[in-house]
Structures are given as structure tokens and as C-alpha cells.
Amino acid sequence: METVSDAIIVGGGPCGSFAALNLAKHGFNVTVFEEHEEIGIPCHCTGHLSINGLRALGLYPLPKKIVENFFYGANFHSPSGKTLSVRFSQPVTCIVNRALFDKHIAENAKKAGVQYRLNSQVKSLIIENDFVKGALVKLNGEIDDDFTAKIVVDAEGISSRILRQTGLQTLNSEMLVNAVQAEVENVKDIESDMVEVFFGKDYAPGFYAWLAPKQDGKAKVGLAAQTGNPKEFLQKLMYNHPAASRKLRTARILRTVFHPVTLGGPIPRVYFNGFLAVGDVASQVKSTTGGGVIMGMNCARIAAEVAGEALRVNDFSSNFLSKYQRRCEKILGFDMKAMLRIRKMLNAMSDKKIDYAISFCTKLGLDKTLQNVEDIDFQGKTLVHALRSPRVISVLFYLFFLHLSANP
Ligand SMILES: Cc1cc2nc3c(=O)[nH]c(=O)nc-3n(C[C@H](O)[C@H](O)[C@H](O)COP(=O)(O)OP(=O)(O)OC[C@H]3O[C@@H](n4cnc5c(N)ncnc54)[C@H](O)[C@@H]3O)c2cc1C
User: Fold this and answer.
1) Contacts of 386 (CB under 8 A, 6+ apart)
2) CATH topology classification for 2-44+99-173+266-340
3) Mean of pLDDT values over 27-55
């Protein structure tokens, strides 16, 4: 048995490393266990992040080598190929090389004193008298050893194997979508500073497809689907979607990765005695876009703050740690609920209605209204802000009508 730390973090993804960094900054001993040999590998994420979101986390500007491109907006393509363009006067998002991004956060955490144990898989939690007291870890793929800590932060990602042991509810499997992401070259007919978004139930049922060009001439293409095989949908998208096929028919796929995305909104409870859950494992992900990096890291920072307070007063009871959930809900709760509603509304809309909606938004000049939107991470608040425009109100009434007629 080794007593290593004030806090153990399960998983060296962005949420685990950011929680570790924020705890170590306050002088606590922190150990991160990461099951892979290298931080950030394998990578399954597009790394499309909002610049404001990064700035608010104190991470912007990022070192140049991490950022693969900047975007001024997006072109939204309906199932029949109609397009709504939203372009801002300055870059609003970027794509990062996720492996380098994860390594960057981990390097900062190491500089702040965090200890990383790579190739070390947390097999189970040590639970005594209903309190999490540490973890059983397979070190270097060989030896099992017990490590004790005053608090364990679970940032294991979507697998939820460790979370399950606490008895907390895991993520909503009905709202999981299977995603594929491909790196491609030889893409045609794109604006290098715009992201492309494609809708259509034949290509990405229950979600959408995306194309993000990189500055090196290659691009990341992806989609997620509630049912069916994402690999087959990707082929269909590239060859049959009226807008996507113009850009991708000649493209060559260099590599593909598959991974689920959680869209069901945060799990009902994210704390237990001596335990906090952050990031994908807690489903702290935008239900609209599946983006979990900025949301998860915001929650990771709050988790570190509450874990720090618990360490100072030596109280690791769920009663004390419930502050974590309350603080997350105060800051993100409204946005999370609004995004889940929007996702359910989009899922209920037929292709024909998405076609109408995109034409209608273009006619009403919603593209111009959206240009004034400042925050794309916190989409609930953004909606309230945008509601000041009569154009948006008309569009919302129209979308509401479409939604009602899709749910008689
Ligand atoms: C195809 C695809 C594209 C995406 N694109 C975007 C995007 O553009 N923008 C965005 O914001 N989000 C995107 N996401 C979502 C994003 O990838 C996740 O929300 C984000 O990675 C969550 O970070 P995390 O730290 O919670 O989990 P992860 O990044 O999954 O990290 C978890 C870490 O824990 C480790 N681990 C797991 N179990 C154990 C264990 N028992 N012991 C030790 N280590 C363990 C894993 O090896 C991993 O390193 C995408 C997801 C997919 C699938």
C-alpha cells in the first residue's frame, strides 16, 4: 500500500490534467494515473474549440504548433444542399491537435508539481465505510498496487468503469451517438477559414456531419449517428450528400477513428464520499454539438476548487462535496438544459423541415443576427442574448411550430 497524494486523478485527458493543474497550483500533492503510455494518444477528437472558451480558462493564446486552423464561422448545409452561412469579423473558433493540446495541459500540470504515472490503469476504487479512500492500479501493465488519497477525481472519459463502482448513475445510453472522424486530403470547394456542417438523416441520423479544414491542406471530417454504422454513413456523406459530395468526392482518407459521444446532459449526481466525477464520465458535454473539452474543463476547474476546500477543512463527505454540483449547475445548468432541449428539438425535425428552416433563416437574415453572438460555448445564455433581435424571435416561433408539428 502506498500513500501518495492528497488527490488521485483517474485519466490524463484534458479534464483530468486541468483538475490536477488547478489543485497543484494551490500546493496539494496530486497524482494522475493514465492507462496509456503517452498523453493524448490515441486521439479521437476533432479539437474544435471556441476561442472565448479557451480564453476564459486562461489557455489562450495557445502555443502555435498546437493550433491547426482558425475559423471565422460556419456554413450549415441542409439535407438537400441549401446553405446558411454565418461569418464573423474575427476568428471565433480554432481546431487544435488534440494530442499536443492534452500534452500541453499535462506539461503545465507537471510544472505545477503534479506526478504522472503513465501506462497505469486504475482497476478499481478502494472504498471503506462508504468512503472512497484511493485506487487499485495496474502499474506498467503488470503489478497491481493500492494507492491511498484523501480524494479521487474521476476523469476516465466515456467508459464509466470506475464511476459505476460508486453506485452513481452513469451516462444516458439512449443519448449516446457513435462517431467517426477521418483525416482527409484533396478536399475541393471549401473556404479554408470556415467550418462546414452537414445535416441529413441519411448521413448522420440524430446528429450531423462536419468538415474542418487545416492549414496544411488536409481536413478533419466527422459525423455521429444514433443508429447504424458511422463508417458506412461517412462513405454516403462523401459520395451522395448534395453539398458534402462536392467537397469530398475526390478526397482520400488518411486515417479514421471511432468513439462514442455523450449528448444526454450531465449525469444526475457527480459526487460521492471522497469522490468527484469530471468531463465525459459525468457527461459534461454540449448536447447540441457534442463538444466536451471546454465544458468539461470548466467543471474540472470547479472540481479542483471544491476538492481544495475539502482538503483544507478535512471534510470529504458527500454533503461537503455536493458544493461541486451546485457550483457547476449555477454556472452551466441553464445552458446545459437549453442545449439538451435544442438537441431533442433537432432530433425530432424531419429532413424536409430542416430544409425549410435553413431557407427561412437565410431569408430572414438570421446569419446577420448571429454575427453579433459572442459566446458559442454557453448556448443557453447566447439564445437569451440573441432573443433581443426580432429576427431571432420570428425564427424561434417558426422552429417551435416545426417542433410541435413533429411531435403531435
Ligand atoms: C469523433 C469525436 C470528435 C470530437 N470533437 C470534439 C470537438 O471538436 N470539440 C470538443 O470540445 N469535443 C469534441 N469531442 C468530445 C471530446 O473528445 C471529449 O468531450 C473530451 O475528450 C473529454 O475529455 P475527458 O478528459 O473527460 O476524457 P478523455 O479525453 O476521454 O480522457 C480520458 C482519459 O482517461 C484515461 N483512462 C480511462 N480509464 C482509465 C483508467 N481506468 N485508468 C487510467 N486512465 C484511464 C484514457 O486513456 C484517457 O486518456 C469529440 C469526440 C469525438 C468522439
Assistant:
1) 369, 370, 372, 373, 392
2) FAD/NAD(P)-binding domain (3.50.50)
3) 96
Protein residue closest via CA to atom 12 of ligand 1: 291
Q: Which of 55, 9, 49, 50 is nearest to 32 (CA)?
A: 9
The residue behind cell 454565418 is 86
Nearest Cα neighbor of 86 from 376, 289, 345 is 376
Test site for ligand 1: of 18, 45, 140, 286, most ligand atoms within 8 A of the Cβ: 45
The closest of 26, 30, 22 to 6, measured between CA atoms, is 30
Pocket test for ligand 1, best of 261, 284, 301, 332 (most atoms within 8 A of CB): 261
Let me know: does 262 contact 285? Beta carbons within 8 Å: yes
Please choose from 21, 156, 275, 302 the residue to mutate so as to test ligand 1's pocket, defined by most ligand atoms within 8 A of CB.
156
- For residue 157, the one-letter residue type is G
Cell of 58: 486562461
Ligand 1 atom showing the smallest separation from residue 137 Cα = 42
Measured in residues, the chain has a length of 408
Q: Is 213 in the pocket of ligand 1 (CB under 6 A)?
A: no
Extents of the domains making up the chain: 2-44+99-173+266-340, 74-92+176-262, 342-406
Does the bond joining 242 to the residue before it have cis omega, within 30 degrees of 0?
no
Assigned fold of 74-92+176-262: D-Amino Acid Oxidase; Chain A, domain 2 (3.30.9)
| H or E, element range at 108 | helix 98-111
Among the listed residues 189, 228, 195, 221, the one whose alpha carbon sits nearest the alpha carbon of residue 50:
195
Answer yes or no: pTM beyond 0.85: yes
> Whose alpha carbon is nearest atom 50 of ligand 1?
45
Per-residue pLDDT tens for 55-111?
999 999 999 999 999 999 999 999 999 998 888 889 999 999 999 999 999 999 999
